[in-house]
Amino acid sequence: MAWVSLKIEARDNTADLISDTLMELGALSASIEDANAETPDEQPIFGEPGDPPPGIWQHNIVSALLAESTDISGLMGELAMATGLADLPYTTEHVAEQDWVRATQSQFDPIRIRDDLWIVPSWHDAPNPDALNIVLDPGLAFGTGSHPTTHLCLAWLADHVHKDLTVLDYGCGSGILAIAASKLGAGKVVGVDIDPQAIQSSEFNAENNGVVAEFYLPKQLPDSFADLVVANILSSALMVLAPALAAACKPQGRIALSGILREQQKQVSAIYAEWFDMDTPQFMDSWVLLTGRKR
Protein backbone atom coordinates (compact mmCIF):
# COMPACT_ATOMS: atom_id res chain seq x y z
CA MET A 1 0.00 0.00 0.00
CA ALA A 2 1.26 3.50 -0.84
CA TRP A 3 0.52 6.77 0.96
CA VAL A 4 0.52 10.52 0.51
CA SER A 5 2.49 12.86 2.76
CA LEU A 6 0.75 16.23 3.25
CA LYS A 7 2.73 19.16 4.69
CA ILE A 8 0.89 22.35 5.73
CA GLU A 9 2.50 25.63 6.82
CA ALA A 10 1.06 26.85 10.13
CA ARG A 11 1.57 29.52 12.76
CA ASP A 12 2.10 28.75 16.43
CA ASN A 13 -1.53 29.43 17.37
CA THR A 14 -3.00 27.19 14.63
CA ALA A 15 -0.68 24.17 14.42
CA ASP A 16 -2.38 22.11 17.14
CA LEU A 17 -5.83 22.82 15.69
CA ILE A 18 -4.73 21.77 12.19
CA SER A 19 -3.03 18.61 13.47
CA ASP A 20 -6.01 17.54 15.58
CA THR A 21 -8.49 18.27 12.79
CA LEU A 22 -6.49 16.26 10.25
CA MET A 23 -6.65 13.26 12.58
CA GLU A 24 -10.42 13.73 12.91
CA LEU A 25 -10.67 13.83 9.10
CA GLY A 26 -8.95 10.46 8.74
CA ALA A 27 -5.20 11.08 8.65
CA LEU A 28 -3.15 8.02 9.66
CA SER A 29 -0.75 10.22 11.61
CA ALA A 30 -0.05 13.91 12.17
CA SER A 31 2.93 15.73 13.68
CA ILE A 32 4.18 19.28 14.17
CA GLU A 33 7.74 20.25 13.23
CA ASP A 34 9.80 23.42 13.37
CA ALA A 35 9.80 24.79 9.81
CA ASN A 36 13.32 26.13 10.45
CA ALA A 37 14.75 22.88 11.84
CA GLU A 38 18.42 22.23 11.06
CA THR A 39 18.98 25.85 10.01
CA PRO A 40 20.52 28.79 11.92
CA ASP A 41 16.94 30.00 12.51
CA GLU A 42 15.95 26.83 14.39
CA GLN A 43 13.94 27.90 17.42
CA PRO A 44 14.56 26.12 20.75
CA ILE A 45 11.59 25.55 23.06
CA PHE A 46 13.53 25.11 26.29
CA GLY A 47 12.29 26.98 29.36
CA GLU A 48 14.14 27.72 32.56
CA PRO A 49 15.74 24.64 34.17
CA GLY A 50 13.01 22.44 35.61
CA ASP A 51 10.17 24.29 33.89
CA PRO A 52 8.09 22.80 31.06
CA PRO A 53 8.76 24.07 27.54
CA PRO A 54 7.01 27.43 27.01
CA GLY A 55 5.23 26.34 23.85
CA ILE A 56 5.49 25.44 20.22
CA TRP A 57 7.55 27.05 17.47
CA GLN A 58 6.32 30.21 15.76
CA HIS A 59 6.68 28.83 12.21
CA ASN A 60 5.54 25.23 11.87
CA ILE A 61 5.01 22.46 9.39
CA VAL A 62 2.11 20.14 10.16
CA SER A 63 2.83 16.77 8.50
CA ALA A 64 0.14 14.18 7.92
CA LEU A 65 0.22 10.71 6.37
CA LEU A 66 -2.85 9.90 4.28
CA ALA A 67 -4.20 7.05 2.22
CA GLU A 68 -3.15 7.22 -1.45
CA SER A 69 -6.79 7.57 -2.53
CA THR A 70 -7.34 10.73 -0.45
CA ASP A 71 -8.86 13.68 -2.32
CA ILE A 72 -6.37 16.32 -1.12
CA SER A 73 -8.36 19.26 -2.53
CA GLY A 74 -11.48 18.01 -0.83
CA LEU A 75 -9.62 17.38 2.42
CA MET A 76 -8.19 20.92 2.44
CA GLY A 77 -11.73 22.23 1.91
CA GLU A 78 -13.03 20.20 4.85
CA LEU A 79 -10.08 21.41 6.93
CA ALA A 80 -10.90 25.04 6.10
CA MET A 81 -14.55 24.58 7.04
CA ALA A 82 -13.72 22.83 10.31
CA THR A 83 -11.03 25.28 11.43
CA GLY A 84 -11.97 28.56 9.74
CA LEU A 85 -8.47 28.64 8.21
CA ALA A 86 -8.60 29.14 4.45
CA ASP A 87 -5.85 29.13 1.79
CA LEU A 88 -3.27 27.34 3.91
CA PRO A 89 -0.03 26.76 1.92
CA TYR A 90 0.66 23.04 1.50
CA THR A 91 2.65 20.48 -0.46
CA THR A 92 2.16 16.76 -1.09
CA GLU A 93 4.55 13.91 -1.76
CA HIS A 94 3.92 10.31 -2.82
CA VAL A 95 5.24 7.75 -0.31
CA ALA A 96 5.88 4.34 -1.87
CA GLU A 97 5.07 1.06 -0.19
CA GLN A 98 8.04 -0.35 1.69
CA ASP A 99 9.16 -2.36 4.67
CA TRP A 100 9.29 0.48 7.20
CA VAL A 101 11.39 -1.44 9.74
CA ARG A 102 14.06 -2.34 7.19
CA ALA A 103 13.94 1.14 5.67
CA THR A 104 14.50 2.72 9.07
CA GLN A 105 17.27 0.31 10.04
CA SER A 106 19.07 0.88 6.74
CA GLN A 107 19.61 4.52 7.70
CA PHE A 108 21.74 3.58 10.72
CA ASP A 109 25.08 1.85 10.29
CA PRO A 110 27.79 1.56 12.96
CA ILE A 111 29.37 4.96 13.59
CA ARG A 112 33.11 5.25 14.19
CA ILE A 113 34.07 7.87 16.75
CA ARG A 114 37.66 6.59 17.05
CA ASP A 115 39.20 3.21 16.24
CA ASP A 116 38.51 2.17 19.83
CA LEU A 117 35.04 3.76 20.20
CA TRP A 118 31.95 2.93 18.11
CA ILE A 119 28.17 3.44 18.22
CA VAL A 120 26.54 0.19 17.07
CA PRO A 121 22.80 -0.30 16.34
CA SER A 122 21.54 -3.51 17.94
CA TRP A 123 20.86 -5.17 14.56
CA HIS A 124 24.51 -4.78 13.46
CA ASP A 125 27.63 -6.70 14.43
CA ALA A 126 30.37 -4.53 15.94
CA PRO A 127 33.02 -3.70 13.30
CA ASN A 128 35.68 -3.95 16.03
CA PRO A 129 34.61 -6.34 18.81
CA ASP A 130 37.61 -5.26 20.90
CA ALA A 131 36.58 -1.58 20.85
CA LEU A 132 34.34 0.17 23.34
CA ASN A 133 31.01 -0.39 21.59
CA ILE A 134 27.88 1.50 22.64
CA VAL A 135 24.74 -0.38 21.58
CA LEU A 136 22.10 2.20 20.74
CA ASP A 137 18.85 2.07 18.82
CA PRO A 138 17.20 5.23 17.50
CA GLY A 139 14.24 5.99 19.73
CA LEU A 140 11.91 8.77 20.75
CA ALA A 141 14.65 10.91 22.28
CA PHE A 142 17.36 12.77 20.39
CA GLY A 143 20.80 11.24 20.10
CA THR A 144 21.84 8.42 17.75
CA GLY A 145 25.53 9.34 17.69
CA SER A 146 25.44 10.47 14.07
CA HIS A 147 25.54 14.24 14.66
CA PRO A 148 28.89 16.11 14.69
CA THR A 149 28.15 17.52 18.15
CA THR A 150 27.84 13.99 19.55
CA HIS A 151 31.10 12.95 17.84
CA LEU A 152 32.88 15.89 19.45
CA CYS A 153 31.53 15.15 22.93
CA LEU A 154 32.25 11.41 22.74
CA ALA A 155 35.84 11.96 21.62
CA TRP A 156 36.32 14.49 24.44
CA LEU A 157 34.93 12.07 27.02
CA ALA A 158 37.25 9.33 25.75
CA ASP A 159 40.21 11.61 26.46
CA HIS A 160 39.10 12.81 29.91
CA VAL A 161 37.08 10.13 31.75
CA HIS A 162 38.71 7.86 34.32
CA LYS A 163 37.48 5.72 37.18
CA ASP A 164 37.66 8.32 39.98
CA LEU A 165 35.48 10.91 38.27
CA THR A 166 31.81 11.86 38.56
CA VAL A 167 30.22 12.83 35.23
CA LEU A 168 27.04 14.89 34.70
CA ASP A 169 25.36 14.69 31.26
CA TYR A 170 22.92 17.61 31.08
CA GLY A 171 20.36 17.13 28.32
CA CYS A 172 21.01 13.39 28.11
CA GLY A 173 18.53 12.61 25.30
CA SER A 174 19.10 8.95 24.46
CA GLY A 175 21.73 8.64 27.22
CA ILE A 176 24.56 8.15 24.74
CA LEU A 177 27.09 10.41 26.50
CA ALA A 178 26.22 9.08 29.95
CA ILE A 179 26.55 5.49 28.70
CA ALA A 180 29.90 6.28 27.09
CA ALA A 181 31.17 7.87 30.32
CA SER A 182 30.15 4.79 32.29
CA LYS A 183 31.75 2.41 29.78
CA LEU A 184 34.90 4.53 29.85
CA GLY A 185 35.13 3.85 33.58
CA ALA A 186 33.68 6.89 35.35
CA GLY A 187 33.07 6.37 39.05
CA LYS A 188 29.54 7.81 38.93
CA VAL A 189 27.39 9.00 36.04
CA VAL A 190 24.25 11.15 36.24
CA GLY A 191 22.06 12.26 33.33
CA VAL A 192 19.32 14.90 33.36
CA ASP A 193 16.74 15.93 30.78
CA ILE A 194 13.53 17.98 30.68
CA ASP A 195 11.77 15.29 28.60
CA PRO A 196 10.35 12.23 30.45
CA GLN A 197 10.72 10.21 27.21
CA ALA A 198 14.44 10.98 27.26
CA ILE A 199 14.71 9.63 30.80
CA GLN A 200 12.89 6.46 29.76
CA SER A 201 15.05 6.07 26.65
CA SER A 202 18.27 6.67 28.62
CA GLU A 203 17.35 4.12 31.28
CA PHE A 204 16.52 1.51 28.62
CA ASN A 205 19.75 2.14 26.69
CA ALA A 206 21.88 2.06 29.85
CA GLU A 207 20.39 -1.30 30.84
CA ASN A 208 20.88 -2.58 27.28
CA ASN A 209 24.57 -1.65 27.53
CA GLY A 210 25.01 -3.22 30.96
CA VAL A 211 26.07 0.03 32.63
CA VAL A 212 24.97 1.84 35.77
CA ALA A 213 23.86 5.46 35.46
CA GLU A 214 21.23 7.60 37.18
CA PHE A 215 18.76 9.69 35.16
CA TYR A 216 16.56 12.50 36.47
CA LEU A 217 14.18 15.25 35.45
CA PRO A 218 15.64 18.63 36.54
CA LYS A 219 13.43 19.03 39.61
CA GLN A 220 14.35 15.51 40.76
CA LEU A 221 18.12 15.97 40.39
CA PRO A 222 19.87 15.56 43.76
CA ASP A 223 22.32 18.26 44.81
CA SER A 224 25.74 17.05 43.68
CA PHE A 225 28.97 18.25 42.11
CA ALA A 226 30.63 16.67 39.09
CA ASP A 227 34.24 16.46 37.99
CA LEU A 228 33.13 16.54 34.36
CA VAL A 229 30.01 18.30 33.07
CA VAL A 230 28.97 17.68 29.47
CA ALA A 231 26.00 19.35 27.76
CA ASN A 232 25.12 18.76 24.11
CA ILE A 233 22.05 20.98 23.65
CA LEU A 234 21.15 24.13 21.72
CA SER A 235 23.31 27.18 22.35
CA SER A 236 20.35 29.26 23.58
CA ALA A 237 19.72 26.70 26.30
CA LEU A 238 23.44 26.58 27.15
CA MET A 239 23.44 30.33 27.71
CA VAL A 240 20.39 30.17 29.99
CA LEU A 241 21.83 27.21 31.89
CA ALA A 242 25.35 28.64 32.35
CA PRO A 243 25.00 29.50 36.09
CA ALA A 244 23.43 26.11 36.87
CA LEU A 245 26.04 24.11 34.92
CA ALA A 246 28.87 26.13 36.47
CA ALA A 247 27.45 25.52 39.95
CA ALA A 248 27.27 21.77 39.25
CA CYS A 249 30.98 21.58 38.34
CA LYS A 250 33.62 21.13 41.06
CA PRO A 251 36.49 23.62 41.35
CA GLN A 252 39.18 22.50 38.90
CA GLY A 253 36.55 20.34 37.21
CA ARG A 254 36.06 20.42 33.46
CA ILE A 255 33.10 21.31 31.23
CA ALA A 256 32.32 20.38 27.61
CA LEU A 257 29.60 22.22 25.69
CA SER A 258 28.26 21.43 22.24
CA GLY A 259 25.22 22.09 20.07
CA ILE A 260 26.91 25.38 19.14
CA LEU A 261 27.31 26.74 15.61
CA ARG A 262 30.58 28.43 14.61
CA GLU A 263 29.00 31.88 14.60
CA GLN A 264 27.66 31.33 18.15
CA GLN A 265 30.85 30.12 19.82
CA LYS A 266 32.28 33.51 20.88
CA GLN A 267 29.06 34.53 22.61
CA VAL A 268 28.72 31.22 24.47
CA SER A 269 32.41 31.12 25.38
CA ALA A 270 32.27 34.66 26.79
CA ILE A 271 29.41 33.71 29.11
CA TYR A 272 31.17 30.62 30.49
CA ALA A 273 34.47 32.50 30.88
CA GLU A 274 32.95 34.01 34.05
CA TRP A 275 33.60 30.66 35.78
CA PHE A 276 35.93 28.70 33.47
CA ASP A 277 39.31 29.13 31.80
CA MET A 278 38.20 28.27 28.28
CA ASP A 279 40.27 26.12 25.92
CA THR A 280 40.76 26.51 22.18
CA PRO A 281 37.48 25.55 20.46
CA GLN A 282 37.26 22.30 18.50
CA PHE A 283 35.36 22.25 15.19
CA MET A 284 33.55 19.61 13.14
CA ASP A 285 31.68 20.77 10.05
CA SER A 286 29.77 23.90 11.17
CA TRP A 287 29.64 22.82 14.83
CA VAL A 288 31.83 23.68 17.82
CA LEU A 289 32.87 21.99 21.05
CA LEU A 290 33.78 24.44 23.84
CA THR A 291 35.68 23.14 26.85
CA GLY A 292 37.19 24.68 29.94
CA ARG A 293 38.44 24.19 33.47
CA LYS A 294 36.61 25.74 36.43
CA ARG A 295 38.58 28.22 38.48
TrEMBL record:
Which UniProt keyword terms apply here? Answer: Cytoplasm, Methyltransferase, Ribonucleoprotein, Ribosomal protein, S-adenosyl-L-methionine, Transferase
> Where found?
Cytoplasm
| Coiled-coil annotated spans | none
Task: Tell me what reaction this enzyme catalyses.
Answer: L-lysyl-[protein] + 3 S-adenosyl-L-methionine = N(6),N(6),N(6)-trimethyl-L-lysyl-[protein] + 3 S-adenosyl-L-homocysteine + 3 H(+)
Stated EC number for the protein is: 2.1.1.-
Predominant subcellular localization, coarse grouping: cytoplasm
Enumerate the GO terms in the molecular function aspect.
protein-lysine N-methyltransferase activity
Question: Transmembrane ranges?
Answer: none
Q: Name one GO cellular component term.
A: ribosome
Residues that hold S-adenosyl-L-methionine according to the record: T150, G171, D193, N232
User: Which EC class heads this enzyme's classification?
Assistant: transferase
Please give a single GO biological process term from the UniProt record. methylation
Q: What does this protein do?
A: Methylates ribosomal protein L11.
The family assignment reads: Belongs to the methyltransferase superfamily. PrmA family.
Q: What is this protein called?
A: Ribosomal protein L11 methyltransferase
- Organism, as annotated: Methylovorus glucosotrophus (strain SIP3-4)
Which lineage is the organism of this entry classified under, starting from the top rank?
Answer: Bacteria, Pseudomonadati, Pseudomonadota, Betaproteobacteria, Nitrosomonadales
